[in-house]
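Customer escalation, tier 2.

The customer says the design service returned an amino acid string that "doesn't look like it belongs to this structure." They asked us to rerun it and document both sides in this ticket. The original structure tokens are below, unchanged.
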């Protein structure tokens, strides 16, 4: 049985599951759009499993990602660009907000 949800329902589901702080308001919008696009591209429907989504996806600043994954950045290199390049090479990037990146953890 499938139920169609909208962005507001998606955000509310995170709140109801006690995971409202896992992603920013804008980050949830990016993740929602990414998942909807994934469904359209693959023809597969995704079950709304908040805990699984919180385990699989993350939202972090470029600085946090560089530290967590040991990404070395040259002094003259753009931090966000280098982090996005590293993520795109190793996993999937869902999108960005003003200052954060939403990605599939690896």
């Amino acid at each position: 049985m499938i139920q169609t949800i909208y962005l507001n329902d998606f955000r509310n589901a995170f709140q109801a599951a006690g995971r409202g702080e896992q992603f920013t308001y804008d980050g949830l919008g990016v993740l929602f759009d990414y998942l909807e696009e994934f469904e359209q591209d693959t023809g597969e429907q995704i079950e709304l499993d908040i805990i699984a989504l919180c385990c699989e996806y993350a939202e972090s600043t470029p600085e946090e990602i560089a530290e967590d994954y040991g990404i070395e950045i040259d002094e003259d290199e753009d931090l966000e660009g280098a982090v996005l390049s590293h993520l795109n090479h190793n996993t999937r990037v869902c999108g960005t907000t003003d200052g954060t990146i939403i990605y599939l953890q690896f």
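Tier 2 assessment: The sequence is consistent with the input. The radius of gyration is 15 Å. Residues 7-104 form one domain. Sent an explanation to the customer and offered a walkthrough call.
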